[in-house]
Amino acid sequence: MNKNNKRTKLLRFLITFSVVSLAVFLGLMLWHNYMNSPWTRDGRVRADVVMIAPDVSGLVSDLRVKDNQEVHQGDILFQIDQVRFQHALHAAQAIAQTRKAEYEMKKHQSARRNAADDEIISAENRDDALYDAQIAHAKYEEAMAQVETAKLDLERSTVRAPTDGWISNLLFRKGDYVQAGEKRLALITSGSFWIYGYFEEHKLSLIHVGDKAKMNMLGTKYTVKGHVESIARGISDRDNTTDGRLLANVNPIFTWVRLAQRIPVRIHIDEVPNGLTLSAGMTCSVSIIPNKSDKRSAAQ
Amino acid sequence: MPLDITLFGIQMPTLLPIFALSAVLQILVDRVMSDTGFYTYVWHPGLFRTAVFVCIFTLPCLLIYR
Description:
heterodimer; A: alpha+beta; six-stranded antiparallel barrel; four-stranded antiparallel sheet; 4 helices; B: 62% helix; elongated
């Protein structure tokens, strides 16, 4: 009776102890995996955006694109009123003609004086005529360059798409005045989508270039596949902003708990599931599948 | 398993629904064990129940965070 009671007591203790230690082990393992596996909820779809600015100033006389329209390289986006540039070209051509006539005149003059006898024309006169002809020739070339510039301005008054892509957030209209170099149109380059995963700094050692990545788009069942293309080699130091006199301005921090900063990891998209249209700015969670061989070499 | 799950239009970590499901499972297991009188073989039922719940919860979670 007493022996049996003792055995029951031991059994009770053993059962409890083994289940509790299993729970502690699993809990620690989950904590470790949760904290140290390379994943983040902070991923963004990004794309190359060309900021289109006209090369010449003027009134927009024709807008050929609509918002969110797909365009191809070389398509006309908008047209700046050409009248002014045509006039400028005519003026430049007229100047070039004058300069050409002047040059012809000086050339003939120089040739005539060169052919004439020493007794009629002094050497100085002859030299002067030669130099005059050379100056006239240079001036003619200058005028021709201005003609070319005027032609270029006329050509650039038609703004064309530099790459294939989509127009986005079209805000300007026919009749607007645009300044040269002023950014007025955003063109999202097609096929340029990539994903930026913002990973906590302590997880970076688990991520290697070439590792496979899976992206879950927010609120959908779609999974985009890709691989790590590169890892950012620098982010700004938020605790040290240089002041106006170029001296360090170190923030006096007093926190015990310091939050891990996020480092951008660039992920190349390999496969987009059917039915999913990527837009720059979409949110996704990113998990990196570490390369098995790396894991082995880290364990050794 | 995916990191996040969308339920009723809200995206949440998969851990949350797993937590709720394992709580339900824990209640069932608890009922079975008390009906069969298993708790007479347990030294400290409170501690034991907590430990069983931790096991039920962490096992599927380890499938997400491998």
